[in-house]
Amino acid sequence: MRPARATRLIFLLSGIGMASWAPMVPYAKARLGLDDATLGLVLLCMGCGAVAAMPLAGFLTHRFGNRDVIGVSGLLVCVALPLLTIAPDVYWLGAALLFFGASLGVVDVAMNAHAVDVEKHAGKPMMSGFHGLFSVGGLVGSAGMAALLKAGAPLTGSALAVSAGLLAIVATQWRHFMVRLEEGEHASTGFRMPSATVFLLGFLCLVVFLAEGSMLDWSAVFLRFSRGFDASSAGFGYAAFSVAMAVGRLLGDRITAHVGPVTIVRGGAFIAALGFFVATLVPWGPAAMAGFVLVGLGASNIVPVLFSAAGRQPGTSAGIGIATVTSLGYAGMLAGPAAIGFAAHLSSLSAALFGVAVLLVVVSACASIVRR
């Protein structure tokens, strides 16, 4: 089905676009002379742009349909990526990250809305596979950008090459996206405050999103400045994380059906915490890479299980429950990397990432909340 293929490719585009930024962070830090606290504050701009644009994306998809919103926002991602490499100072970099984050945020909302419609038309679950393609995109984006830089390609030229590939996806798939389902197919329910259980699920999701965000924004910096990797190789840490995340997600439905959701959360959070412990406590570059793989494997299927549990809560509609958990999760993605930057400024980046591991242990201890 062409809409399904187009959806897979737009998830791939989103993953490539976001992950291509990870190998560029050490270059921005060194080029502009930023300390960890300032870098953390600037990185916050990307999340602010995404979160600010998400409500607008909901209005736009309702008004104009998913097809054109995905197409236009996809084009904006292609424009935004090279701008990150030419920002002349910290203020322009912050503005470019706002634009980049807003473009990705609109793509994120529209592609997930489109994925729901594709699932309904197909009559079978497909969301895990779509998100698996996002993780594959994370691998392609981070490894591809890191490989270009390692080969000696200029930073701006590398970003332009990635943007050209993303543009090809948008141009060839735009006409295959569905506009929207008929309005009658969308059920509505009255508002009711979520239960305390939903808020706890949201906190657990916040921690997992914080862990994922720390990999995106800080893995390359950690390898470059704490483990002695050169700048052109530091992006491979996020690539290792993305490979593990993609494998875990592509196998996620089968694994969850076999071991159950509680084991997924308890074991997954423990494995992810172990990965952070290994990366921060063992002063050896390959150990850090192995730790990032464990983080990806452990975290890969926790969030889908948390979303599912939020949608099953008695007394709370599925839409409100999932919206609450998602909002809190994105708060972790938004504020977490900045908080890590300030913690690293006060102590060290290793200590800040060690704190993420402790929070993941808390998630593991709370796993029984997702029991069917």
Give a description of the structure:
- There is one protein chain.
- This protein is mainly α and 372 residues long.
- It has 2 domains: 1-181, Up-down Bundle (Growth Hormone, Chain: A); 192-372, MFS general substrate transporter like domains (Growth Hormone, Chain: A, Up-down Bundle), CATH 1.20.1250.20.
- The protein is 79% helix and 0% strand.
- The chain has helices spanning 2-19, 25-32, 36-64, 66-83, 90-122, 127-150, 155-173, 196-225, 236-250, 252-259, 261-281, 285-299, 302-311, 318-346, 349-365.
- Helix 3 runs antiparallel to helix 14.
- The longest helix has 33 residues, at 90-122.
- The chain starts with a helix and ends in a 7-residue tail after the last helix.
Q: Can you give keywords for this protein?
A:
single chain; 372 residues; Growth Hormone, Chain: A; 15 helices
